[in-house]
Amino acid sequence: MNPEEDFVKEAYAEITEMEKKAIEGNAKIQQLLSGKEEKKYALIHYGGVEIRFKPFVGRQLRHKMMKAKKELVGVEPEDSLIKTEHLLYTILGELCVDEPFNDWKTWSIIDEKGDSIGGVQRIFMLIMAEIGRYNEDVKNFR
Question: What architecture (CATH level 2) is domain 39-141?
Answer without folding.
Answer: 2-Layer Sandwich (3.30)
